[in-house]
Amino acid sequence: MVFFIAKMLEFLKEISFVRLVIPFCLGIVSYVFLPFDSGHLIALSVFSACCLFLLLTIFIPALQKSHRLQWLSGICMYVLFLPAGYLLAAVRTEINSDEHYSRFLQNGSRALLQIDEPLVEKDKSWKTTAKVIAVVNGNEAATTIGTVLIFLRKDSASSALKYGDRLWVVNKFAELPPPKNPREFNYKRFMGFKQVYRQIFLSSGDWMKAAEKGGIASYGLILELRQLLADILRKHITDDASYSVGVSLILGMREKLDDELIKAYSSSGAMHVLAVSGLHVAIIYAIFNS
Q1: What is the pTM of this model?
Q2: Helix, strand, or coil here: 113?
Q3: Over the stretch 108-119, which tens digit does the pLDDT of each residue have?
Q4: How many CB atoms lie within 10 A of CB 144?
Q5: Are 148 and 119 in contact (CB under 8 A)?
Q6: Sequential DSSP letters for 192-224
């Protein structure tokens, strides 16, 4: 064990980049479990500035005079990169931005949403995510950022929606619920990693499709092509379970997998098979076909 640790330390000395990445990643993880408020952010910024001042005015001149104090530079770098990772995670979190839609929502607000991914069919609704493009309060409109989880009641209008479509909705946004039991899967935190913090349930009369369409045109064409390929697979694969696994492996449409099928793969220890991508399948096919 001691030999292994010594080898690792020797390896880290040769690759300084790895030594800097470790505290940087620890700072990012620290923000995930200990998010800041504005007071903590100011304190952290002041602390980082003080550490940088000490590094520039005290430690660097001392290091130039004595090789015995070189370990101090490593400590200073760790102290600097850890809050740097924390601050980067805070800045990159959309809900902390002044332009996030949650800061503009009021009673009676209207919001313009843009569907951000293909709709996933549920028992009684369609599920997808959408970017909040703007929030309107009375005669004032604000351009916003942020993503919301949408559930649309099934009908002919909602079934025709696609990626890039824009919807006008009333303010029925609700925060994602936290876990109700200890050690339960934290769905709220999981969606937070995807920058999704609120959800909205829309009945038929709660939304209206806008005339304009957004999104990336090339990405929309790719999604349509993927759906076309899925329809071709459906014609040749009649078994539902086999079709679900097929489109998941080949086309990455994991939303087709139902809970029972996922549970069956998980209990058999073959869950990793469903993580295989279409590229992997194509490479394996090319190897065996050569």
Answers
A1: 0.72
A2: strand
A3: 889 999 999 888
A4: 22
A5: no
A6: HTTTEEEEEEE-GGGEEEEEEE-S-HHHHHHHH
Query: Could you tell me the CA-to-CA distances from 136 to 61, 174, 195 in Å, in that order?
Result: 57, 18, 22
167 beta partners: 113, 209
The two structure tokens encoding residue 212: 């304009």
Per-residue model confidence as pLDDT tens digits over 94-136: 888 889 999 999 888 899 999 998 888 888 889 999 999 999 9
Is the CB of residue 182 less than 8 Å from the CB of residue 130? no
Residue 108, φ and ψ in degrees, nearest 5 = 90, 5
Token pair for residue 136? Answer: 């309107």
138-146 long-range contacts, CB within 8 A, separation 24+? 142/99, 142/104, 143/99, 144/99, 144/100, 144/101, 144/104, 144/111, 145/94, 145/97, 145/99, 145/100, 145/101, 146/94, 146/95, 146/100, 146/101, 146/102, 146/195, 146/197
CA-CA-CA-CA dihedral for 103, 105, 107, 111, to nearest 10: 170
- How is residue 135 written in tokens? 């929030």
| Separation between Cα atoms, residue 112 and residue 210, nearest integer Å | 8
Name the phi and psi angles at 78, rounded to 5.
Answer: -65, -40
The phi, psi pair for 113, rounded to 5°, reads: -110, 150
